[in-house]
User: What shape does this take?
Amino acid sequence: MTVIELPDEQAAALRAKATAAGLTLEDWLKQLAGVEGKPRTSQPLRHIADVILENMKDVPPEIAATMPEDGASQHDHYIYGWPRREV
Assistant: This one.
C-alpha cells in the first residue's frame, strides 16, 4: 500500500468532494483511479478506425484535400520535422 500525505486542508477538500458524490473517500478515489473494473462510460468499445472516420466526416473537403496522404508512414516528418523515411 502506498501512503500519500496531504495537508489537512487538501484532505478535507477531497473528503468533501467524495461526500458530494455520495461516496466514501476511499471509494471515490478508487472510482477516480478506475480500479472498480467498470467502464467509465456507457458507450460500447469501438475500433479506432471507426472513431477516426467518424471524426473526419466533419472535415471540409477543401481541408481534407490538403492533408498529406503519407501522414501515417511519415508522421515523424510532419510532427517533429525529421527527414522523410524512404518507403
Observations:
- The mean pLDDT is 86.
